[in-house]
């Protein structure tokens, strides 16, 4: 079969590789739609972000290697005899980070806290290929009302569900979301469904602000046309918001906000309020801890997404309560277009993309 393999940073080739062989606890799938995550797109070009050192080491010691491809929808074509709950023909999506199933946390029903398991696309091959082998514990069945294209977004959506759950919103809480890329728009929609009061979003792109308003933000501020912190203060009686999601930070080379939105998030949250840090930065940040201490701020990071979160995404999208179609701006045909999808996803601002660019591998 054909699969994309990395020979180094910025060097991926469509190679003929052996067919994956099914084994206990696993299924074989044909990927339908697959998209690079923003992190994967940055790593593909050797840009420092989450897991950069680990990927660099794998490339130096194991290349060529099948990497990335944890955001996908796929159809099952073979099921190991010991797997229950899945059948040939089922359409599925998957969560990426898996429990190890052997440590003391996993053996005492706390596998959501385990960080020893593999990640699809990093330690395990992902879905930038004609077929793939996947552990059944990663999977969720897609409802018929969910398209192949929407199905490829569920992994990211499950991380957004986990992020909003981490915020532990109270009914009527005012919410600010910095960044209206795919995860920012998802967090906004899920916060709205979870009882948020006033919702204010911030982006620097008019098209992202327009989608944000369309999907339910009360105010979508373009930070190039106003001082977002001042406007947020005005809209919250001068106090700031109860909860702020920071989904905009990261390398400015990729059109992300750098570190600026971290300080804006701190300025935009009320004293005693919560900031949920969703972004990855690829380098250490300087933060004034005394300021957080003085204002009793809670700077939280999302829990890992579990099977429960992934199952919830199926309900949210199938019922139309979270809308994804509006965010899917680029869909490319054929496995050959994978490098183009990486290029667009690594520079979404330049290509006016909101969701990562998707590739249709199979219909
Ligand atoms: Zn474990």
List the helices and strands and how they pair.
Layout: E1 2-8, E2 11-16, E3 26-35, H1 38-44, H2 52-62, E4 71-79, E5 91-94, H3 104-107, E6 132-135, E7 139-141, H4 148-151, H5 154-167, E8 175-178, H6 182-193, E9 199-203, H7 206-214, E10 219-222, H8 228-235, E11 241-246, H9 260-268, E12 269-277, H10 289-294, E13 298-300, H11 307-318, E14 331-333, H12 338-346, H13 348-351, E15 358-360
Parallel strand pairs: 8-9, 8-11, 9-10, 11-12, 12-13, 14-15
Antiparallel strand pairs: 1-2, 3-4, 3-6, 3-15, 4-5, 5-7
This protein binds zinc ion (ZN).
Key words describing this protein structure:
single chain; 363 residues; alpha/beta; Quinone Oxidoreductase, Chain A, domain 1; Rossmann fold; seven-stranded mixed sheet; six-stranded parallel sheet; 15 strands; 30% helix; binds zinc ion
Strand residue percentage = 15-25%
Percent range of helical residues: 25-40%
Shape: globular
The total strand number stands at: 15
How many discrete domains? Answer: 2
**For this structure, what is the CATH class of the largest domain?**
Alpha Beta
CATH architecture of the largest domain: Alpha-Beta Complex
Task: Let me know the CATH homologous superfamily of the largest domain.
Answer: Medium-chain alcohol dehydrogenases, catalytic domain
Secondary-structure-derived class: alpha/beta
Terminal CA distance: 17 Å
Largest sheet: 7 strands, mixed
Arithmetic mean pLDDT: 96
What series of H and E elements makes up the topology? EEEHHEEHEEHHEHEHEHEHEHEHEHHE
Number of helices: 13
CATH topology of the largest domain: Quinone Oxidoreductase, Chain A, domain 1
Q: Ligands bound here?
A: zinc ion
Contiguous runs where pLDDT drops below 50 for at least 5 residues = none
């Amino acid at each position: 079969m054909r699969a994309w393999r990395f020979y180094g940073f910025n060097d991926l080739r469509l190679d003929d590789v052996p067919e994956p062989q099914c084994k206990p606890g696993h299924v074989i799938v044909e990927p339908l739609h697959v998209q690079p995550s923003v992190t994967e797109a940055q790593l593909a070009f050797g840009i420092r972000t989450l897991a950069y050192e680990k990927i660099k080491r794998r490339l130096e010691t194991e290349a060529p290697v099948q990497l990335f491809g944890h955001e996908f929808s796929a159809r099952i074509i073979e099921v190991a005899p010991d797997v229950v709950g899945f059948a040939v023909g089922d359409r599925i999506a998957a969560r990426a980070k898996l429990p190890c199933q052997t440590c003391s946390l996993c053996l005492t029903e706390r596998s959501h806290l385990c960080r020893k398991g593999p990640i699809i696309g990093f330690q395990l091959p992902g879905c930038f290929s004609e077929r793939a082998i996947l552990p059944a514990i990663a999977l969720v069945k897609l409802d018929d009302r969910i398209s192949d294209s929407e199905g490829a977004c569920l992994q990211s959506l499950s991380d957004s569900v986990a992020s909003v759950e981490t915020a532990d919103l109270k009914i009527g809480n005012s919410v600010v979301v910095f960044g209206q890329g795919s995860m920012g728009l998802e967090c906004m929609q899920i916060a709205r469904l979870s009882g948020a009061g006033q919702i204010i979003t911030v982006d620097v792109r008019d098209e992202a602000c327009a989608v944000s308003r369309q999907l339910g933000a009360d105010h979508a501020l373009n930070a190039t046309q106003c001082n977002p912190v001042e406007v947020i203060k005005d809209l919250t009686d001068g106090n700031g918001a109860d909860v702020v999601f920071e989904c905009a930070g990261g390398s400015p080379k990729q059109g992300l906000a750098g570190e600026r939105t971290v300080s804006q998030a701190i300025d935009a949250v009320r004293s005693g309020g919560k900031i949920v840090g969703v972004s990855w930065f690829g380098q250490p940040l300087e933060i004034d801890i005394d300021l957080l201490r003085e204002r009793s701020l809670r700077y939280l990071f999302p829990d890992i997404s579990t099977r429960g979160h992934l199952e919830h995404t199926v309900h949210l999208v199938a019922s139309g309560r979270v809308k994804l179609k509006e965010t899917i701006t680029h869909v490319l045909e054929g496995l050959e277009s994978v490098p183009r999808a990486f290029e667009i996803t690594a520079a979404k601002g330049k290509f006016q993309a909101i969701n990562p660019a998707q590739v249709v591998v199979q219909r």
